[in-house]
Specification:
The structure holds 2 protein chains of 2 kinds. By secondary structure, chain A is an all-beta fold. Chain A is built from no helices and 12 strands. Chain B is mainly beta. Chain B is built from no helices and 11 strands. Classes of the chains: A mainly beta, B mainly beta.
Chain lengths: 112, 114
């Protein structure tokens, strides 16, 4: 069975600073990996996904993530955050079937 | 624009009542899902449907029921058997053929028991 662990429940950061949101997964088979963003009282929006190929994946809003198979990680990064990036971020894993496992989420607070 | 519409946005339920949450999509996706979101617990799968007239229980199906009579629609009923229904409910859909390219989510329904 797959599982996803988001290592930080909350991450405060100052505006224009870099940020990394950490995600580890476990699976005995090949996986597809995703990051979603959720703004208050809204649904989730897909930020980026890793299906195959290059391990560095670029997404929307300047975010990128790196798939590291040996460390079973898929950390999300942004070199310079904005106030508008304040939201909750979810890492998710799928083995290509009809079910996806979500992490518990990381709340990113960007301070002025 | 294609997407998923959930209604209502806010819903209040009295003790012992059944309520139905609507989910409609125009993305031509075969697969649809219902998730429950509680603070600090991420998303938990209630039910999912791979095709019309077929659906499977997720991890927390007790106290919920669904139907899938049309490809575009996947309503969720929260029954009186669900003892703690206050939560944020999210509907999603995905590309079929068994390969998950990620979900498209609706904007959610916040259910509160009064």
């Amino acid at each position: 069975a797959q599982s996803v662990t988001q290592l930080d429940s909350q991450v405060p950061v100052f505006e224009e600073a870099p940020v990394e949101l950490r995600c580890n997964y476990s699976s005995s088979v090949s996986v597809y990996l995703f990051w979603y963003v959720q703004y208050p009282n809204q649904g989730l929006q897909l930020l980026l996904k890793y299906l195959s190929g290059s391990t560095l994946v670029k997404g929307i809003n300047g975010f990128e993530a790196e798939f590291n198979k040996s460390q079973t990680s898929f950390h999300l990064r942004k070199p310079s955050v904005h106030i508008s990036d304040t939201a909750e971020y979810f890492c998710a894993v799928s083995t290509g079937g009809f079910k996806t496992i979500f992490g518990a989420g990381t709340r990113l607070f960007v301070k002025a | 624009d294609g997407g998923i519409t959930q209604s209502p946005k806010y819903l209040f339920r009295k003790e012992g009542q059944n309520v139905t949450l609507s989910c409609e999509q125009n993305l031509n996706h075969d697969a649809m899902y219902w998730y429950r979101q509680d603070p600090g617990q991420g998303l938990r799968l209630i039910y999912y449907s791979q095709i019309v007239n077929d659906f499977q229980k997720g991890d927390i199906a007790e106290g919920y029921s669904v139907s899938r009579e049309k490809k575009e629609s996947f309503p969720l009923t929260v029954t009186s058997a669900q003892k703690n229904p206050t939560a944020f409910y999210l509907c999603a859909s995905s590309n079929p053929q068994g390969l998950n390219y990620g979900y498209t989510f609706g904007s959610g329904t916040r259910l509160t028991v009064v």
